[in-house]
Automatic annotation (TrEMBL):
PROSITE patterns (alphabetical): ARM_REPEAT, U_BOX
Broad class of enzyme this protein falls into: transferase
Database matches in InterPro entries: Adaptor_Cbl_N_dom_sf, ARM-like, ARM-type_fold, ARM_PUB, Armadillo, PUB12-19-like_N, RING-Ubox_PUB, Ubox_domain
Gene3D superfamilies in the cross-refs: Adaptor protein Cbl, N-terminal domain, Leucine-rich Repeat Variant, Zinc/RING finger domain, C3HC4 (zinc finger)
UniProt keywords, alphabetically: Repeat, Transferase, Ubl conjugation pathway
First and last residues of every ARM repeat: 423-465
Catalytic activity: S-ubiquitinyl-[E2 ubiquitin-conjugating enzyme]-L-cysteine + [acceptor protein]-L-lysine = [E2 ubiquitin-conjugating enzyme]-L-cysteine + N(6)-ubiquitinyl-[acceptor protein]-L-lysine
Pathway the protein contributes to: Protein modification; protein ubiquitination
Name of this protein: RING-type E3 ubiquitin transferase
Length: 678
């Protein structure tokens, strides 16, 4: 299950406990298991610790600790094999050693999983941790009654030697590490002062940190992001400048080794996980009210409603101050993790064999995207460097630069502002027509990410990006990902009424969105439906949507009622808006939608029922007698309306009450009703 293995940062001083009242044999077996875990985690002698790439002093500390534990492992195995009774002092010693080995295992996990930068910052604390555990090992071994244990002389001598050496061991810190950390800080201070660091010095520092390629830097960035994830999940105070370090490493990677892009395997993994979820009916309570997708990081806003963190963060960043679901003003924008719901979602996913992970780095929008002067200046330098290269770069380099800008634009409003202010949008537009599929995907996704920041919408539209996005949306030569992200970008732009009106004037935009609504993935169809909703919200566009065949496509998602799993609410929302126009009402009535709408009053979600009853009410009021007769012939209308009166949303109850009154008047006097409403 995604995120289950995500490491939380350890507290070196955390309290560890020995097993509670263990038997001698179970204690020994547990010690053997711990010792094996530790020794197997460390590469064999003579091999460079390349996998973990830990700092020099910790390599030495790890090697020394591992050698001692290997000797203790021989002791534990001989004790197990002899099956002799252990004296109380031996059990006490082994209990203390169990605590020591737990601490060693946790400390090694920190060393192996932490980023190089964090290991450098924490070199003294890590060294202290190893020294403290070594001293605890020596203290425990002092009370071990070797003469009472049935072990070989060779093992006995080696264990006694371990005890002596551990007792005399001094804390080891490589003197080069404090100096290297000062050099890193000096370079970051230069960047904060808006000075370009010396490339020779930058290369020396990166080489000292074993960051010798773009791949090394990319892995370092991933680990820095995990540091933030761990601190955020554990609700810890972030004491170290992770964001500064991430921006510094990204800058160094770009200027020293060149831009890189997301690997295709990473993109495929996201789409596979999404498709797993698409095949299962997701409980409504597990879906975000904004994105309507399965929540992976649910948070509670000031009004008490729960949303996916990325979705509500985007809503707030766009300048909204109201709760999307309730419409109430939010007293503050603090987002509180809904841990209970999150646990339920993970349990549900586990039962259905679904692995979930955010398709976008949601927490980056909360922690790592909080810019400091250093990170902001580092991002500016990185973007300026990339954009200087972009126009004249080779096709492959352009693809990498577009991928780098796409990644940067994911991480918060400050980055999006920096990229747009550097005039990146006009330089990205030619890449929207690139022959290379990945280049085009990166460029369109970068535009999408930039459009999330409200002031960037005008920049994107004024640069002429809309026509490029529509061309991608309608082209059969582009990838599915490019078309879907193009639709998502149009949806983002359509939040502005003027741009929604603009899109309505472009027939290709409407036809492209309708085509995606017919044949796209669930995610793509949702974005297309949301874009169509925004376009239809501008009254002048409704007749154009009806003329383009939107009503038939939307009803096709509802007939039969389960054919558009996950899209009923979106389809009904657009139909409810179109039913506010004469053309929309006529098209809905002509397509014999009444029986289907009545059925949806019974079977759809609360929001879907609300829109279905609103459509029926509009049809009765303005189309008149033929619709009323058709509704009266469907017996299910009465229990469905009464159910809405008792259990529906506030708006659904109002609409249901109005429709009931109208139907009862017709039942009593159809001529009078006809005079009033036709």
């Amino acid at each position: 299950m995604a995120n289950s293995s995500r490491r939380r940062r350890r507290h070196f001083g955390q309290t560890l406990m020995p097993p509670l009242n263990p038997s001698a044999i179970s204690l020994v077996k547990s010690l053997i298991g711990l010792a094996n875990d530790i020794t197997e985690a460390v590469p064999a002698e003579g091999r460079k610790l390349r996998r973990v790439a830990i700092a020099a002093s910790q390599k030495r500390n790890v090697s020394a600790m591992t050698r001692r534990i290997k000797i203790l492992l021989m002791l534990f195995e001989e004790v197990r094999d002899t099956a002799s009774l252990l004296p109380p002092s031996a059990i006490l010693c082994f209990g203390e050693l169990h605590v020591v080995l737990q601490g060693v295992k946790l400390l090694l996990e920190d060393c192996f999983e932490s980023s190089r930068m964090c290991l450098l910052m924490e070199h003294h604390r890590l060294s202290e941790g190893f020294h403290r555990l070594t001293q605890s090992m020596a203290t425990a071994l002092e009370i071990l009654p070797m003469t009472l244990l049935d072990v070989s002389c060779e093992v006995q001598e080696q264990v006694e030697l371990v005890q002596q050496q551990a007792g005399k061991a001094q804390m080891f810190v490589d003197p080069n590490e404090p100096k290297l950390w000062l050099e890193v800080q000096a370079l970051m201070a230069q960047i904060e002062r808006k000075e370009t660091p010396d490339m020779v010095k930058l290369m020396e520092v990166f080489s000292s940190l074993d960051l010798n390629s773009a791949g090394d830097c990319q892995r370092e960035l991933a680990k820095l992001e995990e540091e933030v994830e761990g601190a955020w999940e554990a609700s810890e105070e972030i004491k170290f400048p992770y964001n500064d370090l991430a921006s510094f490493v990204r800058y160094g990677k770009c200027v020293l080794y060149g831009a890189t892009e997301l690997q295709e395997e990473e993109v495929r993994e996201v789409s596979v996980e999404q498709s797993e979820c698409d095949d299962v009916k997701v409980p409504e309570d597990f879906r975000c009210p904004i994105s309507l997708e399965l929540m992976t990081d649910p948070v509670i806003v000031a009004t008490g409603q729960t949303y996916e963190r990325a979705a509500i963060t985007r809503w707030i960043e766009e300048g909204h101050q109201t709760c999307p679901k309730s419409g109430l003003m939010m007293a503050h924008t603090v987002l509180i993790p809904n841990q209970a719901l999150r646990s339920l979602i993970w349990q549900w996913c586990e039962r259905h064999g679904i692995s979930i992970s955010p398709s976008e780095p949601t927490h980056q929008g909360s922690r790592i995207s909080q810019s400091t002067p250093t990170s902001l200046e580092a991002t500016k330098l990185t973007v300026e460097f990339l954009l200087r290269q972009l126009p004249s770069a080779a096709a492959e380099t352009q693809r990498h630069i577009a991928g780098e800008l796409r990644l940067l634009a994911k991480c918060g409003s400050d980055n999006r502002k920096v990229i747009a202010d550097a005039e990146a949008v006009p330089l990205l537009l030619p890449l929207l027509s690139a022959r290379d599929v990945r280049t085009q995907e990166h460029a369109v996704t970068a535009i999408l990410n930039l459009s999330i920041f409200p002031p960037n919408k005008a920049i994107i539209v004024e640069a002429g990006a809309v026509d490029y996005l529509i061309k991608i949306l309608c082209s059969s030569d582009t990838s599915d990902a490019a078309r879907e992200n193009s639709a998502a970008a149009l949806f983002s732009l359509s939040h502005v009424t003027d741009y929604a009106a603009l899109l309505g004037e472009k027939a290709e935009a409407i036809s492209g969105l309708l085509q995606l609504l017919r044949q796209g993935s669930l995610r793509g169809r949702r974005d297309a439906a949301s874009a169509l909703f925004n376009i239809s919200a501008y009254s002048g566009n409704r007749a154009k949507l009806v003329k383009a065949g939107a009503v038939g496509v939307l009803l096709g998602l509802l007939s039969p009622p389960d054919s558009g799993v996950g899209l009923q609410d979106e389809a009904l929302a657009v139909l409810a808006v179109l039913a506010g126009s004469p053309e929309g009402r006529v098209a809905i009535a002509d397509l014999n939608a009444v029986p289907l709408l009545v059925e949806l009053l019974r079977s759809s979600s609360p929001k879907g029922k609300e829109n279905a009853v609103a459509i029926l009410l509009n049809l009765c009021r303005y189309v008149g007698q033929s619709v009323i007769k058709e509704i009266m012939n469907v017996y299910a209308i009465w229990p469905s309306l009464h159910s809405l009166l008792n259990n529906g949303t506030a708006r659904a109850r109002r609409k249901a009450s109005s429709l009931l009154r109208m139907l009862r008047k017709w039942e009593a006097s159809p001529i009078t009703l006809l005079a009033n409403y036709c």
